[in-house]
Prior knowledge:
With 143 residues, the chain is mostly helical. Helices cover 66% and strands 4% of the residues. The protein has helices at residues 14-31, 34-37, 44-49, 58-66, 70-76, 78-100, 111-137, and strands at residues 2-4, 106-108.
Amino acid sequence: MKLTLPAPNRKFGLVDGLGLAGIVGLLIARFIPVAKIIPFWGCMLRETTGWPCLGCGLTRVAERVAHFNIPGAWEANPLGTVAALLFALMAVVMVLHLVFAMPVPDVQLSPREWAWVRIALPILLVANYAYVVVKTRFPHLLM
């Protein structure tokens, strides 16, 4: 892994865009009850088959993280909670970067490290989905 720190700047970059998305998403989750006001909101797969999709629980995760209920968010979808917290972190970094010209570190992974990421990500997705399925369909197994 190669980590470089550029000169202080206020150039809008990828981390700033993800931070802006995090701010907007968490503010919406905090103040607008999307799942209650949009009649068709919900998981169609779960409603028709009873089985959750890969994204089941993400609305609850966003609402719970926006209300600082991290354990509740973790229970709904662990990987979604990690993603929501990373968006919140990027929002903080974006504010520090654009307001105070804090340099955003540039991280470059080697081909071997990218290979590990490509191996670990599908494993994490499968493990997270397994948890969501067990939590939804077989909650007695988690007691």
